[in-house]
Amino acid sequence: MALPEKLNVLELFCGIGGMHYALQDFEVKCAVDINTVTNAVYQHNFPSQLLAQREIQSLTLKEIENLGVNTLLMSPPCQPFTRVGLKKDLEDQRTDAFISILQLLDKLSSPISYVLVENVKGFEDSLTRDQFISILSKKGYIYQEFLLTPLQFSIPNSRLRYYCIAKHQSKGGHFVFPLVEQVQCKVPDEALHYLLDGHKYIDIDIPENSQTCDTNSDVQLTAEQITSAIDNDERISLLGNFLESSTQCASDYLLGEKGKKHYQGLDIRTANSRNSCCFTKRYGHYFVGSGSFISTGNKLEDDTLELRHFTPEEIARLLCFPQKFRFPDSTTRKQRYRSLGNSLNVYIVANLIRLMTLSL
Ligand SMILES: C[S@@+](CC[C@H](N)C(=O)[O-])C[C@H]1O[C@@H](n2cnc3c(N)ncnc32)[C@H](O)[C@@H]1O
Fold first, then answer.
1. Strands (E), the chain
2. Least CB-packed of 66, 143, 168, 215 within 10 Å?
3. Could you give phi then psi for residue 283, rounded to 5 degrees?
4. What is the pLDDT of residues 1-29, one digit of tens each?
5. 77, part of any domain
6. Same domain, 21 and 34
7. Taking 90 as the threshold, does the pLDDT of residue 142 lie above it?
8. Is the pLDDT assigned to residue 350 strictly greater than 70?
9. What does the alpha-carbon distance between residue 191 and residue 79 come to, in Å, rounded to a whole number?
């Protein structure tokens, strides 16, 4: 097996840097995002990183060619592909930046070797996806699409996401696994051997209710409905391994009166649970369908359980951000939840980058 080459990366829609943390043996030549809040978080963690605060539509062919990158990582806005975002797809202006990059990919004189895209479930059925795939095919890439959730990597969190990894044919016409036309809902058997050491991959079917807590979901199910057999699958880590040990957070993050009104609809977990809902950008100010709540073990006077929010640090841990990841003091709690809700599972992306760049 050939050693993976060093990746020179253009990280677009970089947010708080989930893609950056997923990389090994790399140089991020440039990261780009328009959001001042997430850019402050990114820069806090990567102070010497070139980070361009600008509209991605304003990037020119020449600028990209001058960067000399061989890898393009993107997680474009997902609202155009969700029900709450009205699934406007190409007609949603938030898709424009991604389309402008596809147009540049089409015109590049020398193709970028590797392209990875992450988005919500729903993207795979969009016209935007069709345009993306059509450019990949036209420009001579092989590609594989996936729908994966951290539960399959024994991480107690549901976050079903679309991923596409693409490699230019000049880097070899195959991955370490056979290509299939359909979106893969599992890591192919042939690829298992190459996964990173860390969270163990387990062969589970993606639970049907994974969608219920998806970003911007408008489906509101009760906690009982959401809790599935997955919660008892002993191959998945206990949530307790991802929780703060300090009792301070219990009091700082307790559910207020407003939250208690939604008690019946909340997804309630304990340290012994083996699943949690997808934490969306609404967590912290919406209750039902925005993410899970944890029982402190105490009972309240009205006989309900005392509950608290997951802390941003706990959510970052479930997303597999490294321990060293920090928010600057200036980032408010609401902004922390929002930016984590928009981010991604670092461990899954790290594995996909590996599968994308390995050659036999
Ligand atoms: C789904 S989030 C990506 C999150 C990122 N992967 C992370 O780990 O935090 C989409 C990001 O795209 C940025 N964005 C959306 N439209 C943009 C545009 N036209 N130009 C630059 N950035 C844009 C948003 O600010 C947001 O941070």
1. 7-12, 26-33, 51-53, 71-74, 114-120, 141-148, 161-168, 267-269, 292-299, 305-309
2. 66
3. -60, 140
4. 665 679 999 999 999 999 999 999 899 99
5. yes
6. yes
7. yes
8. yes
9. 31
Q: How many CB atoms lie within 10 A of CB 4?
A: 15
**In one letter, which amino acid is 155?**
I
**Co-location of 196 and 299 in the same domain:** no
Nearest to 145 by CA among 157, 136, 154, 153: 136
Burial of 5 (0-12, 13-18, 19+ CB in 10 A): middle
Q: Ligand 1 atom closest to Cα of 55?
A: 20
| CB 15 less than 6 A from any atom of ligand 1 | yes
Residue 38: CB within 6 Å of ligand 1? yes
ipTM attached to this prediction:
0.99
Q: Does residue 1 belong to any structural domain of this protein?
A: no
The closest alpha carbon to 267, from 256, 258, 257, 279, belongs to 279
User: Residue with structure tokens 């996909």?
Assistant: 352
Q: Is-contact 320 130, C-beta < 8 A? A: no
Q: Which domain holds residue 145?
A: 7-202+345-357
Q: Cβ contacts of residue 31 below 8 Å, gap of 6+?
A: 11, 12, 14, 17, 20, 42, 46, 49, 50, 51, 52
d(CA 208, CA 179): 25
Residue with CA closest to ligand 1 atom 15: 77
Domain presence at residue 2? no
Q: Report CA 108 to chain centroid distance, whole Å.
A: 28
In sequence order, which residues have a C-beta less than 8 Å from that of residue 26 and are 6 or more positions away?
6, 7, 8, 9, 71
Instruction: Show the tokens assigned to 2.
Output: 């050939």
Rounded to whole angstroms, the Cα distance separating 4 from 25 reads 9
What is the separation of C-alpha 101 from the centre of its chain, rounded to a whole number of angstroms? 20
| Closest protein CA for atom 2 of ligand 1 | 342
Q: Which residues pair with 295 in a beta bridge?
A: 307
* Counted domains in the chain: 2
Residues recognised as catalytic:
78
The answer to whether residue 301 scores a pLDDT higher than 90 is no
Is there a single domain that holds both residue 197 and residue 312? no
The count of other CB atoms within 10 Å of the CB of residue 138 is 10
